[in-house]
Amino acid sequence: MTDPILFSVDDGLARITLNRPESLNAFDAALAHEWARVTVEATSHDDVGAIVLDAAGRAFCAGGDVREMAQKMGSGADIRELAGVINVGIRALTESVIPVVAAAHGTTAGGGLGILMTSDYAVVGANSRIGSLYANIGLTPDLSVSAQLAHAIGQRRALQLVLQDRMLAADEALAWGLVAEVVPGDDPASIAQGVKARADEIARFWLANAYGAYGQAKRLIRSQPDRTFVEQLAEEARSIGAAFDTPESQARVAAFAAASKSRS
């Protein structure tokens, strides 16, 4: 049996690869449980400074496996339980202090949109298409789509996406702020390779620099809705003070000051 997720950690980089290419990486029960396990493991590693989230085959993630829903899910309670399992992984990634980059080539739809938004930086290909499509099968957004989409692109645009069967082209997703970069190209296979290569490059950039500071910056942005403005100011002050006391920050601040002095 093929593993539904491929997972590895190499020199500080954790890689999580959705691995149901024949089903466009749609979530069935096996993928859901492995997703929860692997994401918790990845974010628990002390030596992990960056996470790449990618997928096998010609698509990133088509959401839930509708065929399994029809054949094996006997009630709404079954769907609710499975969503709860997947949500464990969504929380693990979004609440961690490890920056996550997604290599989302091809199609992203339904709950796959929520999986995409667990990343902090998303790279797609020129041929990518991203949409909601829940209502097409009479269902409502899950897997953090209603929790994160409006924060990412604004309420009016979020409503446009969930109230139509619209699939955003890559350049539209970029203009809306849903993704950070679009990799050009004409051939789907080469585009997918380019998307993954660019995501790796971003993760390596984090690792080569002050990845702990990047992680804390992510935490400050992600957790801000839990605080008032005054509380956020206080948390920013606490965080930068804690960062300043680390050996890495002390070395970087000293090097920056020395370089500035030599230029003056």
List the helices and strands and how they pair.
Elements: E1 5-10, E2 13-18, H1 29-44, E3 50-55, H2 66-72, H3 76-94, E4 100-104, E5 107-109, H4 111-116, E6 121-125, E7 129-131, H5 145-153, H6 155-162, E8 167-169, H7 170-176, E9 181-183, H8 188-208, H9 211-223, H10 229-244, H11 247-263
Parallel strand pairs: 2-3, 3-4, 4-6, 5-7, 6-9
Antiparallel strand pairs: 1-2, 7-8
Description:
This protein has 264 residues and is an alpha/beta fold. It has two domains: 5-208, Alpha-Beta Complex (2-enoyl-CoA Hydratase, Chain A, domain 1); 211-263. 53% of the residues lie in helices and 15% in strands. It contains eleven helices and nine strands. The strands form two sheets. Strands 1-2-3-4-6-9 form a six-stranded mixed sheet, with helices on both faces. It has a three-stranded mixed sheet with strand order 5-7-8. Helix 1 (29-44) links the parallel strand 2 and strand 3 (50-55). Helix 1 packs parallel to helix 3 and helix 5 (145-153) crosses helix 6. The chain is globular and about 70 Å long. The protein starts with a strand and ends with a helix. The mean pLDDT is 95. It comes from Microbacterium allomyrinae. Pfam families: ECH_1. This is Enoyl-CoA hydratase/isomerase family protein. GO terms for molecular function: catalytic activity.
